């Protein structure tokens, strides 16, 4: 899952980026509203964390202009805890709202719920035959037995599972797995899919040559 973090406080930006990457997300960053809006329109993020007080274009402006074009899930981060701000956030099209200072665990839990809801899932567990994915703990079992996946393998599996029944192109997978800091290897996806099939069963993921992958 790939996130955009729009935040102008350098310490919070770097701390949060590190924490989100540790939690398994790919993270792009923007330090002002205009750069943030540009990236948000350019790339299909799984969720956007949006500070309210930002240079050049504030969070309200970013959200309003984003919503003219896209429905990417947005969580507003703000130091202000006034009810009228929260109401304004939701009325402008925010999907969630978190007041600073916040606990990292709460941010991560809300983020998981936000991404889950946007994929139309109401619970953290996804079952595909004998394979069970717990998106809250990021763990996978096969027939009740835990299966160890690398962070990248898990990310591919979770994305395909959340979009079950849909053909997901390699381009889409790359876009949601890597961020602007990472270098990509074009044959990497074949290896990840091969590993997932080896660990979880040959039939789990279908390949459509030249098009992409699908969990039917
Ligand atoms: Ca700020």
Which tags fit this structure?
binds calcium ion; alpha/beta; 2 domains; Rossmann fold; Arc Repressor Mutant, subunit A
Write up what this structure looks like.
Helix 2 runs parallel beside helix 3. The protein has two domains: 2-118, 3-Layer(aba) Sandwich (Rossmann fold); 125-214, Arc Repressor Mutant, subunit A. The chain is α/β, with parallel strands linked by helices and 216 residues long. It contains eight helices and twelve strands. The mean pLDDT is 91. Bound molecules: calcium ion. Calcium ion binds at residues 8-9, 51, 53-54.
What's the layout of helices and strands?
Layout: E1 2-6, H1 10-22, E2 26-30, H2 33-42, E3 47-51, H3 59-67, E4 74-78, H4 83-92, E5 96-99, H5 104-118, E6 125-128, E7 131-134, E8 139-142, E9 145-147, H6 151-162, E10 168-169, H7 170-177, H8 188-200, E11 206-208, E12 212-214
Parallel strand pairs: 1-2, 1-3, 3-4, 4-5
Antiparallel strand pairs: 6-7, 7-8, 8-9, 10-12, 11-12
Bound molecules: calcium ion.
